[in-house]
Design goal:
By secondary structure, the protein is mainly beta. It is 8% helix and 58% strand.
């Protein structure tokens, strides 16, 4: 009896979150480094920003990473994701898988894509996503296929990035459930000062919540150790984190803060082959 009521309550909570248009499709994928930077990073290079801009990995070596995050310190709102970048000829093959939620309400996300550099400064990329929802109170498992496409211009100390997620505005529909996946347009820039201080800014537009401003700072206090801080104009607002980076490994931890619901921690670990 109590188990059934608990499932009913969990299903109601998840349904309420989606009805108020919480954009959970990105939650299983955003790594800790970007969470700490206020969700900015569309102009950065590497495997971590692939969720914001698939062109970011155009010059990356073989990379594998895993991220675990927990919304508001609730186990039922946790997510885990795995990302891989594989060099193929002069391009980069992208692969990702992620899950959000629990047995009562679970979103699974699969992604495959390709990134390629065009000369020394320009790059482009596209990643296709498959989203699937499993709900305890529904016999159906609604699904959706969409894509994210992006471009970047990167110089030695600065760069720009532009991406379009779900540009066709596709929706997930079934006979007893409907969920919008908004069109999201991101444009951002970054600048590196004296090799150890990074400043990022980004604008994100979606057709459900309009414009969000993101701002992030990263500073290397030691050669391999950095601190990060960020802000975005939509909840959760403030964020911060730490990073430890070597030539072959990167570990990150981040915390974001919601004024009513509290802290959301995340941790990432990446292994890289130069």
């Amino acid at each position: 009896m109590y188990g059934y009521l608990s499932k009913q309550l969990i299903f109601y909570i998840f349904s309420l979150l989606f009805l108020v248009k919480v954009n959970a499709q990105e939650a299983p994928m955003i790594p800790a480094s970007l969470q700490a930077l206020g969700g900015s990073g569309v102009s950065l290079g590497g495997a971590e920003p692939v969720v914001l801009n698939p062109s970011s990995a155009s010059l990356s070596g073989f990379t594998g990473g895993i991220t675990y995050s927990n919304r508001f310190l609730l186990e039922d709102l946790s997510s885990v994701s795995v990302v891989m970048v594989i060099p193929v000829a002069k391009s980069r093959f992208l692969a990702s898988v992620g899950q959000f939620g629990n047995d009562a309400f679970r979103e699974t996300q699969l992604g495959i894509g390709l990134a390629k550099a065009f000369g020394e400064r320009f790059s482009g990329g596209i990643q296709f996503y498959y989203f699937n929802l499993k709900m305890a109170e529904s016999v159906q498992n609604p699904a959706l296929v969409t894509f994210n496409i992006g471009l970047q211009y990167r110089h030695n100390s600065y760069g720009f990035g532009l991406s379009f997620f779900n540009p066709m505005g596709l929706e997930m529909n079934s006979t007893d459930f409907n969920r919008d996946y908004p069109l999201v347009i991101r444009f951002g820039a970054h600048k590196v000062f004296q090799e150890d201080f990074l400043v990022l800014s980004q604008l994100s537009y979606d057709d459900e919540q309009n414009v969000t401003v993101h701002f992030g700072l990263q500073y290397y206090v030691l050669r391999q150790f950095c601190i990060r801080a960020g802000f975005q104009t939509k909840s959760p607002g403030w964020s911060m984190g730490l990073g430890y980076l070597t030539r072959r490994m990167q570990s990150d931890i981040a915390f974001s803060y919601h004024e009513y619901l509290g802290f959301s921690p995340s941790i990432s670990l990446y292994f890289k082959r130069p």
